[in-house]
C-alpha cells in the first residue's frame, strides 16, 4: 500500500513538473523570475517604466511574472495587430483584478460574451451612435461656453483686486467641463460642487489602488488564503466610500420612482425593473461611463494644453486656423471641427504622445495562442503597451516631439484601424465612445485656444511632464498657466 501511495505521488509530481515545463516552454523572453514572487521585486511604481526597460533588452514581446501570473507585454504595432485583430477572438476576455473589478458584470471588465455584447449595444445606441452624439451636441457646447465664462470670471476677479495676474490651474476647468457633460448625459444633471470634488477624489484613489496591488493579489494560493485571514482595510474603506457617494449622488433614495430619474440612468432602471439587468450591472455600467468618460478625456486635454504651452508655435498655428475658420464674432461649435484640420491634428498628436491609459486594459487568453513566434498559454494576461507603440521610432519620426503637422502629411485613423496609434484600443474591445471623446476634446481645446492665449507663469521654466503611477496616465503636477483673453471673449457678457 505504501509503495502504491509513493508511486502515485511520484507520478503526480512528475506530471505537474512536466506540465509546468511544457507550459513555460516557448513563452516570450523576459527577466528571470524568482520562486513564487516572479518579477514583483523588480517592478517600479510605474509598471510601464519597467516594461520599457525590459523591452529594450528582450524585444517587443516580453514575459513578466507577477507572482504566479504570467503577463505578456507587446510593444510594437505588428504585435498589437496580432493581439487585437488576428488573435482577437482568443484574447477578448478580461483579466480581472479582484480589488477593482468585482465580478465583471459591467461593460469594461466583463468577458467577451452575450452579456458584454448586450451592454455594448445598449451604450452605443443610447450614448455613442452618430445620432445620439448629434442630439446631445448643444449640451456639450453649452457646458464648454460655461467653462469659458468661468475662466473669464476668475480673470476679472483677479484684475478687479488689482493684483498681479495669478496662474490658473488648467485641470480645474477641464475636469469640470468634462464631468458636467458626462453627468448630464448619464443622470440628466450636474453634480453639486462637493459631489464633484468627492467623485474626483474617489476616482484618483481608485486609479492608484488598481495600479498598485499587493503580493497576495498575484500569488493564486495566497490570494485564496488571504481572503480568509487578511482584510484589506484600505480597499474596503474605499469601496464603502464609493458606495456611499454613488447612492447619494446617483441613485438618490431607494424609493424614488424610475420616472423621476433622468438621462441614461432612467433607461437602465427601466431594464432593471424588467429583470433584464441586475442591480450590480446597472451600478457597474453607470460607474464605467462616469469614470471612463470623464477622466480619460480630461487627462488627454490637460496633456495637450501642457504641450502647447511648451510649444507656443503649435498654439499660434491652432489659433490662426480658428481665427480664419471661426472668427471672433462667435464661439467655436462642433460643426466647425471638420474644417479645423490642424486642431484635429493637435488632438491626434496628444492621443499619440499621451494616451490616457498607457497600458491597454488587460486581455486574457481564453486558449493557447502564438504571438510573434512565441506561445501565450491559456490564462495568461496580455497587455498592449499603447504609449510605447505611439512613440516607436520605427513608425514615427522624432517620436518624442509634439508635432501635430505629422498628421497633416498622412491621414491616420486613431480609432482602432491604424495599429501605430491605439488610444482607444481596437478589435472587439475597442472603446465605443471614441468619436464622442474626440469631439469633446476638439471642442474644449478649440474654445480654450480661441478665447485665450496660454503661457507659463515663469518664462523659461520647465513644465513638469512626469505622470502619476496607476491605471490612468495623469500629470503628476497639475499645469498652471497664465490666460490672456483674446478677441473672441467679446461675445461673452461681462456682467458675469
Automatic annotation (TrEMBL):
Keywords: Heme, Iron, Membrane, Metal-binding, Monooxygenase, Oxidoreductase, Transmembrane, Transmembrane helix. One of its GO terms (cellular component) is membrane. Its cofactor is heme. GO terms for molecular function: dicoumaroyl monocaffeoyl spermidine meta-hydroxylase activity; diferuloyl mono-(hydroxyferuloyl) spermidine meta-hydroxylase activity; heme binding; iron ion binding; monocoumaroyl dicaffeoyl spermidine meta-hydroxylase activity; monoferuloyl di-(hydroxyferuloyl) spermidine meta-hydroxylase activity; tricoumaroylspermidine meta-hydroxylase activity; triferuloylspermidine meta-hydroxylase activity. Signal peptide: none annotated. Heme binds at residue 431. One of its GO terms (biological process) is spermidine metabolic process. It is a single-pass membrane protein. This is Cytochrome P450. Gene3D superfamilies: Cytochrome P450. The chain crosses the membrane at residues 6-23. SUPFAM superfamilies: Cytochrome P450. The lineage of its organism: Eukaryota, Viridiplantae, Streptophyta, Embryophyta, Tracheophyta. It is found in: Membrane. Belongs to the cytochrome P450 family. Pfam families: p450.
Amino acid at each position: 500500500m505504501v509503495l502504491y501511495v509513493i508511486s502515485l505521488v511520484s507520478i503526480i509530481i512528475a506530471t505537474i513538473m512536466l506540465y509546468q515545463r511544457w507550459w513555460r516552454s516557448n513563452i516570450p523572453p523576459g527577466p528571470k523570475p524568482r520562486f513564487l514572487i516572479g518579477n514583483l521585486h523588480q517592478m517600479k511604481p510605474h509598471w510601464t517604466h519597467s516594461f520599457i526597460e525590459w523591452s529594450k533588452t528582450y524585444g517587443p514581446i516580453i514575459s513578466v511574472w507577477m507572482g504566479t501570473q504570467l503577463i505578456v507585454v507587446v510593444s510594437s504595432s505588428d504585435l498589437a495587430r496580432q493581439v487585437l485583430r488576428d488573435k482577437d477572438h482568443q484574447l477578448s476576455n478580461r483579466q480581472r483584478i479582484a480589488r477593482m473589478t468585482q465580478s465583471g458584470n459591467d461593460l469594461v471588465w466583463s468577458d467577451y460574451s452575450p452579456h458584454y455584447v448586450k451592454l455594448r449595444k445598449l451604450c452605443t445606441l443610447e450614448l455613442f451612435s452618430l445620432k445620439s452624439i448629434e442630439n446631445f451636441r448643444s449640451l456639450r457646447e453649452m457646458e464648454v461656453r460655461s467653462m469659458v465664462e468661468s475662466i473669464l470670471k476668475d480673470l476679472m476677479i483677479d484684475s478687479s483686486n488689482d493684483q498681479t495676474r495669478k496662474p490658473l490651474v488648467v485641470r480645474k476647468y477641464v475636469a469640470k467641463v468634462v464631468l458636467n457633460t458626462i453627468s448630464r448625459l448619464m443622470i440628466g444633471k450636474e453634480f453639486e460642487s462637493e459631489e464633484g470634488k468627492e467623485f474626483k477624489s474617489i476616482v484618483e484613489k481608485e486609479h492608484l489602488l488598481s495600479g498598485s496591488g499587493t503580493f497576495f493579489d498575484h500569488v493564486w494560493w495566497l490570494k485564496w488564503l488571504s481572503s480568509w485571514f487578511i482584510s484589506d482595510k484600505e480597499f474596503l474603506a474605499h469601496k464603502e466610500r464609493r458606495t456611499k457617494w454613488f447612492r447619494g449622488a446617483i441613485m438618490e433614495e431607494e424609493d424614488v420612482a424610475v420616472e423621476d430619474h433622468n438621462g441614461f440612468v432612467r433607461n437602465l432602471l427601466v431594464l432593471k425593473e424588467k429583470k433584464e439587468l441586475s442591480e450590480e450591472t446597472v451600478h457597474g455600467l453607470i460607474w464605467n461611463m462616469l469614470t471612463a468618460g470623464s477622466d480619460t478625456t480630461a487627462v488627454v486635454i490637460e496633456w495637450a494644453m501642457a504641450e502647447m504651452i511648451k510649444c507656443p508655435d503649435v498654439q499660434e498655428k491652432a489659433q490662426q486656423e480658428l481665427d480664419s475658420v471661426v472668427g471672433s464674432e462667435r464661439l467655436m461649435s462642433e460643426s466647425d471641427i471638420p474644417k479645423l484640420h490642424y486642431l484635429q491634428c493637435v488632438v491626434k498628436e496628444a492621443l499619440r504622445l499621451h494616451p490616457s491609459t498607457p497600458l491597454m486594459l488587460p486581455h486574457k487568453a481564453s486558449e493557447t495562442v502564438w504571438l510573434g513566434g512565441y506561445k501565450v498559454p491559456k490564462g495568461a494576461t496580455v497587455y498592449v503597451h499603447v504609449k510605447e507603440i505611439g512613440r516607436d521610432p520605427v513608425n514615427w519620426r522624432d517620436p518624442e516631439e509634439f508635432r501635430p503637422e505629422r498628421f497633416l502629411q498622412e491621414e491616420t485613423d486613431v480609432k482602432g484601424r491604424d495599429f501605430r496609434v491605439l488610444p482607444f484600443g481596437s478589435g472587439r474591445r475597442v472603446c465605443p465612445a471614441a468619436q464622442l471623446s474626440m469631439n469633446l476634446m476638439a471642442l474644449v481645446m478649440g474654445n480654450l485656444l480661441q478665447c485665450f492665449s496660454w503661457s507659463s507663469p515663469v518664462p523659461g521654466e520647465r513644465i513638469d511632464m512626469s505622470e502619476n503611477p496607476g491605471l490612468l496616465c495623469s500629470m503628476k503636477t497639475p499645469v498652471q498657466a497664465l490666460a490672456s483673453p483674446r478677441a473672441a471673449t467679446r461675445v461673452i457678457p461681462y456682467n458675469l
